[in-house]
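quick one: flavin-adenine dinucleotide bound model?
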Amino acid sequence: MNSLQNTVSNAGKILHLQAKEAMKIVVPVKRVVDYNIKPRVKADGSGVETTGVKMSMNPFDEIAVEEAVRLKEKGVASEVVVVSIGVQQAQDTLRTAMAMGADRAILVLSEESPEPLAVAKVLKAINEKEQPGLFILGKQAIDDDMNATGQMLAGLLGWGQATFAGKVEVADGRVKVSREIDGGTEDVSLSLPAVVTADLRLNEPRYASLPNIMKARKKPLETLNAEDLGVDMARRLTVVSVAEPAERQAGVKVGSVAELVEKLRNEAKVI
Amino acid sequence: MTALVLLDHEEGRIRKSALSAVTAASRFGDVHVLVTGDAAVAQAAAAIPGVAKVLHAADAQYAHELAEPLAALIVSLAGGYEQIVAAAGAVGKNVLPRAAALLDVQPIPEVIRIVDAETFVRPIYAGNALATVRSSDAKKVLTVRGSAFDAAPAEGGSAPIEVVAPAVNPNVSEFVAVHLSDSERPELESARVVVSGGRGLQSEEKFHILEPLADKLGAAIGASRAAVDSGFVPNELQVGQTGKIVAPELYLAFGISGAIQHLAGMKDSRVIVAVNKDPEAPIFQVADYGIVGDLFEIVPALTTALN
Ligand SMILES: Cc1cc2nc3c(=O)[nH]c(=O)nc-3n(C[C@H](O)[C@H](O)[C@H](O)COP(=O)(O)OP(=O)(O)OC[C@H]3O[C@@H](n4cnc5c(N)ncnc54)[C@H](O)[C@@H]3O)c2cc1C
Ligand SMILES: Nc1ncnc2c1ncn2[C@@H]1O[C@H](COP(=O)(O)O)[C@@H](O)[C@H]1O
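yep, here:
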């Protein structure tokens, strides 16, 4: 076979594979206190102040949206649907995700920060409605720091899970993921459909351009109630109290290395 | 009451944080541990005093601690236990929430204090707040921070070992390969001294300047996210909210500004030293001893001064 024929036949094969594999991706995005804001504990100890505080998309979810949009740009995905479970204002988060390139959004109204178990159950119901080939979540929401929802969703669906993803490749009906683990990285391969959770180094999310922000306003956003989906949102964890951790006192500045060594030896007694 | 601890290991070595999980679980009552891997790992687990029984998941499908088969196994064993516990490391965080979902339980991640059998303290918002939560689930599924509980001794016990029957493998995942950085240094999370570098180190090459100092102090090396993202060091050295949580006797931060996400991972260290050329760097607000200056002068001088 000459090289031209070869190219043509490969192109045909790739097109064929893509047509077979192109799938929907669902990305759950959470509205959280912006990562640049230092959180303040409410005076009554009931939680962390969120009223009047700048809220943004959970940074890991921006990474998840970016990855999904890139998979769409590569022809691996046909549609990217973003979902948020929370209060009405989570609409803003969904619009941001659509400005980054997601095609449409679903807002499931509930209390402000539902527990991972409830969120996973809502997402399971969304799966029945949408039938995606892949869920990409953030590895962790930086408010409650649970790091649980993706794993729980995968469990409820009986799907494979690749958490803490640093690299994602979809091919031949499988997703191959390089995961960040305690001692280095681990590669796993999952059959599709599957759940992936994004770690920091998966990609660098794009900024939404002004024209795309305008366009996102016209993209479809559907609003549902958790009850419509038949999900019990009752909390299993009651917050007894939320307190500030003990403040660390700033110490002293020393003028020289010799002085530092002397203090570490004789005052702190750590060396 | 009996608690089941998933005892994770790396290349046959039981992690120190897993030994801390044993200590935490012993607060509830008897402790059984579940280990994967070969017979030597099970024997090491049996030698931990305070372990009443070792469940050995000897079947090859568990060898790599893949979440899908391992969570299924935990669920098959869960009937006999009130608590299921693991260290809050990559394995525990991956496997336990999945098992919890299958048990219809809301997991309680990164516990730093067990108040009573229902009530737990855990940091939220990058450790800027501590939440005390009470679980209404009949079974508790929790991961615990290694830095918050003393490690159980590794020797002295002789618990019986029982090989457990495999559970049905969902067969949706495959282990392909693992890439571990081999380092002679102590494990970051349990080292007595940690020498950490940030963006101020400038490059992968220049980052090596920290090594002679770490050698001299018998220290582990850590890093900020910026240092990892810039490719100076591999990902597993990241300290912080979304990296490793450390609480050594001595933490030295060079060229790290002190973002809240970094502080979340190290502010419980006993003594903190910061070296930064910016006198206003927030890291100085948590440092016991600070030097304002160029790290490229201070690191070699400090290394020499320790002779
Ligand atoms: C979702 C999310 C999760 C995150 N998780 C983590 C995490 O787990 N861990 C983490 O560390 N960060 C994390 N971050 C990033 C964090 O917000 C900061 O961006 C990061 O910690 C900054 O790293 P740095 O201090 O090395 O760099 P910079 O903030 O750039 O600081 C570099 C410092 O080096 C000093 N310096 C430069 N040259 C010299 C010199 N020659 N001598 C002395 N000092 C010098 C400078 O004065 C400066 O203070 C996270 C961010 C997000 C959004
Ligand atoms: N209320 C929510 N709405 C949408 N997505 C969520 C919500 N809570 C959690 N998630 C997703 O689950 C991930 C992990 O969150 P968590 O388990 O809470 O740390 C987040 O990064 C989101 O992708």
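The longest strand of chain B covers residues 173-180.
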